[in-house]
Amino acid sequence: MDIRAAVFREVGAALRVERIVLDPPQPTEVLVRLAAIGLCRTDYHVMRGERRVAMQPMVLGHEAAGIVEAIGDQVQGVAPGDHVVLTFIPGCGHCRWCQRGLHHLCAEGPRITHGPQLDGSFRRRDAGGRDVGAFCMIGAFAEATVVDQASVLVIDKDIPLDHASLIACGVPAGVGAARHRARVKPGDTVLVVGCGGDGMNVVQGAKLCGASMIIAADIVAQKLEWARDFGATHGTTAQGDELISTVLALTDGIGVDHAFVCINPAETLLPAFRATTKAGNVVVTAITPDTVKQIDVPPLELFATQKAIMGAVYGFASPRLQIPELLGLYRRGDLKLGELISRTYRLDEINQGYADLDAGRNLRGVVLID
């Protein structure tokens, strides 16, 4: 079928909205007519060359929801007409991690930047007949996509698809980091550095966990105002040593129990580490450019303070288990989704959407497909 897609062809260049050919689904695959795609910073890292991918051209986009149009003859549990969200790490179901219900650690995860489908072949071709890759095996910046059933999660049809798209990446990444990685407890204190897509959902997650103090830190004052709406008790634009001093002043010199690094870890991890109490947790949810090879945390300081530094992808929980739980919280009014959306865009406005993200004007932009 002939579709429009936003294609990544060159580092540093704008995405090109062009017509490409999308082939039918193979036996284990699903054709999804896309409805809403979140503008996640991860795709922007690819555009800027900070998250290298194995090929160009490639259709970016991974935070998506849509409606199933067709399925392969070996697909199970998914039917035409189903509403679905797409998971940016496939759950193959066969590796040692998937067998333990840890789909966020699936052995196929390292392949999501390569371009081909899960089976190693391609479903997209440009006007010149050249294979076009799919970022995260999804390639969601398009009118439709073909993905393996390993990346498909069926949801209830009454959930708005623009809201549902956010549950595919940013919401579980942040909420889960608080609930499942740091395991914030009632009464704990929390620092969130960077209040964008991940960070704002860490704020939500910390509130759900019963944190007594949630300090939001961001250089954009508007995001601090938004953070209050999502549960932050304090806000600051301080950075570096000033951030450390601010947090220590708010916590009687002790530091927070948990710090979350949700933007630019190369510059923000050490201040977050030093703003954390002894034996506290520092959780990194943000991507660092792969050109950065080290971060300066003095080993003796790490040893003496007995703090833990840890990463969290997908909120350190299986999306197949976490997403239904989060949608349950949304239904009860305990989790904000629609409030995360600052602005919506047409597919041909996608570069403006990323310009707005880079300028700090959006909490989350969402591309809507007519």
From TrEMBL:
Pfam family, one: ADH_N
Record PROSITE patterns: ADH_ZINC (PS00059)
GO cellular component, one term: cytosol
Keywords: Metal-binding, NAD, Oxidoreductase, Zinc
InterPro entries for the chain: ADH-like_C, ADH-like_N, ADH_Zn_CS, ER, GroES-like_sf, NAD(P)-bd_dom_sf
Highest taxon, organism lineage: Bacteria
The keyword Zinc is annotated on this UniProt entry: yes
Residue intervals of the Enoyl reductase (ER) domain: 12-368
Biological process according to GO: formaldehyde catabolic process
Family per record: Belongs to the zinc-containing alcohol dehydrogenase family.
The protein, known as: Possible alcohol dehydrogenase class III family
Species in which this protein is naturally found: Rhodopseudomonas palustris (strain ATCC BAA-98 / CGA009)
